[in-house]
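Internal tracking record. Fields below are filled automatically when a chain is submitted to the structure queue. Please do not edit lines marked as system-generated. If the sequence contains nonstandard residues, flag them in the REMARKS field before resubmitting.
Queue: standard
Priority: normal
Entity type: single polypeptide chain
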Amino acid sequence: MGKTIPALLPRVARLLQSFGENLKLARLRRKYSADSVAQRAGITRRTLSKVEQGDPGVALGVYARVMQALRLEDHLSHLAVDDLLGRKLQDAGIIPMRRAPKKKSASAVGADPDRNEPRDA
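SYSTEM-GENERATED OUTPUT FOLLOWS
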């Protein structure tokens, strides 16, 4: 029985496909052959084809090696840089806590802990 992979949302699948197409365009602009990029990345020609199609089954490390072969590895630092949703969630959870006034202890008011009546001093 094969490994079950959760399905991607259609929007995410389109983004991944667009990313693969961008890598293919970058390769073609540089006039690199698919064989040479695959060899530089240490992958097969078939795996490079999957990368350029945006296949979600390809490991992120393989995408990174293809980017390195195309000299685009610096672009990896732009992934998930500005997490607006995460910041909003974090800010929503950081509400200054107001402390309730401290309750006076039984010994401070002179009450006997065994009885609920004040002691005579």
